[in-house]
Amino acid sequence: MAKVIIWNLVTLDGFFEGEKKWDLDFHNRAWGPELEALSRDFGKTAGLLVFGRVTYEGMKAYWTSAEEEGEVKTYMNALPKLVGSRTIASSDWNNTTVTADIVGEISRRKQALDKPIYIFGSAFLCDALLTAGLVDEVMLAIVPVQLGKGTPFFKDGARRDFDLIEAKPLSNGAVLARYVPQSAITIS
Fold it and tell me: Dihedral of CA 50/53/54/57: which sign?
């Protein structure tokens, strides 16, 4: 059974982007050798990458036209990808499937795969999967920046409790924190 792992960068005040879509300048404060190595590890271990529609559109636009070469570009374009959307029905990005039933599809894929399912960005999608109890881990790079305004990663709603499984300071002051939602069900 695959683990479903949320991955995102958030500011100290909880934003995963600034006031405008794709306002991610604060990522530069956290980026460095440690996150680059983590990104390469995602490509080596992932069984599936998952995006909401907005994150998918940005990722597709970037990774299909990026001039940089390397492992990350290769895996972003090669790995199987799943997009949760009610507004698009298909994709021309290599190895991409689109579904309007993301909760059902993640549930099926979680049972069928044995490699991690990584969800990048996609705050509304992450909220839906946390609510459905399908998330096994939330991995955040907490960036030492206060934006003051932006798009919060965690959406308003019911309280959720998490257990810390690892906290690792990075050389640039960011902290990589891994949490397990207390509602996560582990099946051996």
Answer: positive
